[in-house]
Write a structure and sequence with these properties.
By secondary structure, this protein is an alpha/beta fold. It has 7 helices and 11 strands. α2 links the parallel β3 and β4. The two termini are 14 Å apart.
């Protein structure tokens, strides 16, 4: 669909071509940071372009996206990060009255360390990297979004294309956690084909076309 508008957000029209470019750039940054097929990447964001971009980028690599509900309490978020075995977290600093960055720093004081090494925490033992959208510059081990993206600028396009080519519909892709109203949230694992089929079904059932917004 090229230059057709894909997302309209805060007065800005974002084309399909721009979404593809941004998703590839994020995928290269993730790959340059060690993310590969099968790895878990948590995404803690509201409905915004970067959520869609992250979804595509993670899928390109054959990694597994673990969305974290923005209504989740700090305790629920910690549980999802630990139970989902997330190796990397992409999140936005704040939303309405919630300051997710402060909450995360409180939960993981190890993030305050001013060095370039990976995160090591017994509370979330598989989590190694944290990237914040809305952070002007890197804070301790919390990487700023733009700085993180720049890490992938030298990643070869042909290598990214080769990684994409290895992803098939039967690969694991997504872990959706339930709201956890009666107990701990339950993680439901979906394959790559699930999101594609469901998106097609929604569009078909609602008779959406390329002219709809």
């Amino acid at each position: 669909h090229g230059d057709r508008c894909a997302i309209r957000f805060e007065g800005r029209d974002i084309s399909c071509r721009e979404i593809q470019f941004d998703a590839r750039r994020l995928a290269k940054a993730l790959a340059a940071s060690g993310v590969s097929k099968g790895m878990r990447v948590a995404v803690h964001m509201a409905n915004r372009p970067e959520f869609a971009i992250a979804s595509f980028a993670i899928a390109m690599l054959g990694a597994v996206m673990v969305p974290v509900n923005t209504f989740a309490t700090p305790d629920e978020r910690e549980y999802i990060l630990r139970h989902g075995d997330s190796a990397l977290l992409l999140f936005q600093c704040s939303l309405l009255k919630r300051n997710f960055l402060d909450e995360l720093l409180c939960m993981l004081p190890e993030l305050q360390a001013n060095n370039n090494g990976a995160l090591h925490s017994t509370r979330v033992p598989h989590l190694r990297q944290v990237v914040a959208l809305g952070l002007a510059q890197t804070h301790g081990k919390v990487q700023a979004w733009e700085s993180f993206l720049a890490r992938g600028d030298d990643f070869p396009d042909d290598l990214l294309n080769a990684m994409i080519a290895e992803v098939v519909p039967a690969d694991e892709s997504l872990i959706i956690y339930t709201s956890g109203t009666t107990a701990r949230p339950k993680g439901v694992l979906h394959l790559q084909r699930a999101a594609v089929i469901q998106s097609w079904r929604f569009a078909d059932d609602l008779r959406l076309s390329g002219t709809d917004r």
